[in-house]
Amino acid sequence: MKASTFVAAFLGGAIVGAGAALLLTPExxxxxxxxxxxxxxxxxxxxxxxxxxxxxIVDQIAAEIKEN
Length: 68
What we know:
By secondary structure, this protein is mainly α. It has 3 helices and no strands. The longest helix has 22 residues, at 3-24. The chain has helices at 3-24, 29-43, 51-67.
């Protein structure tokens, strides 16, 4: 294999790998918490009367997700 072919293949693989990593990277914690909160409200899973109660539940769910 020529050196130029090897370098081109290496660079092509690196670009594909970087693109896949960007697409498959998990969301940051704030986005995850927002999605959880929206789903809880949407499906009426918790009829929390105070925002602090909802935040506590969201924090617990987010922690469980991060552990697994």
